[in-house]
Write a structure and sequence with these properties.
This protein is an alpha/beta fold and about 375 residues long. It folds into two domains: about 200 residues, Rossmann fold; about 140 residues, Phosphofructokinase domain (Rossmann fold, 3-Layer(aba) Sandwich), CATH 3.40.50. The protein is about 35% helix and about 20% strand. It has twelve helices and 15 strands. It has a seven-stranded mixed beta sheet with strand order 3-2-1-6-7-14-15, with helices on both faces. It has a four-stranded parallel beta sheet with strand order 9-10-8-13, sandwiched between helices. The protein has a two-stranded antiparallel ribbon with strand order 4-5. α6 crosses α7. The protein is elongated, with a radius of gyration of 22 Å. The termini are far apart. The structure holds 6-O-phosphono-beta-D-fructofuranose (F6P). The site of 6-O-phosphono-beta-D-fructofuranose (F6P) has 13 residues, from β12. 6-O-phosphono-beta-D-fructofuranose (F6P) binds next to β12.
């Protein structure tokens, strides 16, 4: 086999387990005689020609390391890249596919492994079209990543279990101070438009109320749960809230809009809103904590290391057998693959009939609805 060069990049928000994937794709490919090139900071590295060779030494000893040795970026779609500012101060957006083609040609990159979420898969598909428009082929293989667990087509993504463990641990800690001060404590977790982290962490952390985007909540019901508990001598309550949760008839709370990002909306602030409303409506003193990027950092849990390695191994197999345009996924408890375009810009939300919701309700967890 003539030496073939495979580019690897990690794009979008980072998550625990990315390095385990890089290791799991690189080692078998190197063993099979491929050259592996790491592209720095997601698609930005392809645009700015920042690459480095990945040999066995570079990918050894990184299994348990959080973050990504390659760096990542969640605002570098080559088809709509912010190259500077317009005279009115708005970002100047350009198609810089040509720069990516040049980088790929300069380094002889024959195929790209994209480790990313739905936005990154969408960028990859758009870039493939941009290559095709220039008469070039961009061979792609995808590996799904996100703490949000919301990638369409896979039952689970690596990073999720670690984020849930962090959030559940935070609920355990916050509970003792809630108990001491007889307060309602609201813990805001990440997850974008999906409530997976709040649901699983809330259940694991024994939250009395779990608020997720898929079930708009009634603040009077939430306040009533807190008040009734106080009336029964349970003088504290724990409320887990997903950043994308919203009251019935209300809108999600947006913390920031970043026009240079493929997914410009950054959610945040619902924790404070809910805590203030609980205090106002129930008279029970309330506080909130926003876990934020704590959930994305640190060492991956064992489950995520195993899943990341299994996905990486599968992706390497797709490359070795020339099965392009596929993403490794978990389906029916087995690692398999689906077309990359199926995962692009599609999110897997929590189904209302999810068994975890039923289990939570069975132990008297409220979802903030009557
Ligand atoms: O998609 C992962 C995620 O952590 C979301 O849960 C969160 O909404 C978003 O990324 C935060 O993005 P940033 O790192 O740009 O603040």
């Amino acid at each position: 086999m003539p030496t073939t060069t495979i580019g690897v990049l990690t794009a979008g928000g980072d998550c625990p387990g990315l390095n385990a994937v890089i290791r799991a794709v690189a080692k078998p490919l190197l063993h099979e005689g491929f050259r592996v090139v790491g592209i720095e900071d997601g698609f930005r590295g392809l645009i700015e020609d920042r690459t480095r060779p990945l040999g066995v030494d570079e990918v050894s000893g990184i299994l348990a390391q959080g973050g990504t040795i390659l760096g990542s970026c969640n605002k570098s779609n080559p088809r709509r890249f912010a190259t500077g500012l317009n005279p009115d101060g708005s970002p100047r957006i350009e198609d810089v596919t040509g720069r990516c083609v040049a980088t790929a040609e300069r380094h002889g990159i024959d195929a790209l492994i994209v480790i990313g979420g739905d936005g990154s898969m969408s960028c990859a598909c758009e870039l493939r079209e941009g290559f095709a428009a220039r008469g070039r082929e961009l061979r792609l293989v995808g590996v799904p990543k996100t703490i949000d667990n919301d990638l369409w087509g896979t039952e689970v993504t690596f990073g999720f279990q670690t984020a849930v463990a962090t959030a559940a641990g935070a609920l355990d800690r916050v509970r003792t101070t809630a108990e001491s001060h007889h307060r309602a404590m609201v813990v805001e977790v990440m997850g974008r438009n999906a409530g997976w982290i709040a649901l699983h962490a809330g259940l694991a952390g024994g939250a009395e109320v779990i608020l997720i985007p898929e079930i708009p909540f009634d603040l009077d019901v939430v306040a009533r749960v807190v008040k009734e508990r106080a009336g029964r001598g349970r003088r504290y309550s724990m409320i887990g809230v997903s950043e994308g949760a919203r009251p019935i008839g209300g809108a999600k709370i947006v913390a920031k809009v970043d026009p240079t990002s493929p997914d410009p909306i950054r959610l945040g602030g619902v924790g404070k809103f809910v805590a203030d409303e609980i205090e106002r409506r129930s008279g029970v003193e309330s506080r909130y904590v926003v876990l934020g990027h704590l959930q994305r950092g640190g060492t991956p849990e064992a489950f995520d290391r195993v899943l990341a390695t299994a996905f990486g191994h599968h992706a390497a197999g797709l490359v070795a057998s020339g099965r392009w345009g596929r993403v490794a996924v978990m389906s029916g408890g087995r690692v398999t693959d689906i077309p990359i375009e199926d995962t692009a810009s599609r999110q897997r939300l929590v189904p209302i009939d999810d068994p975890t919701i039923a289990a939570a309700r069975a132990v008297y967890t409220s979802f903030g609805v009557a």
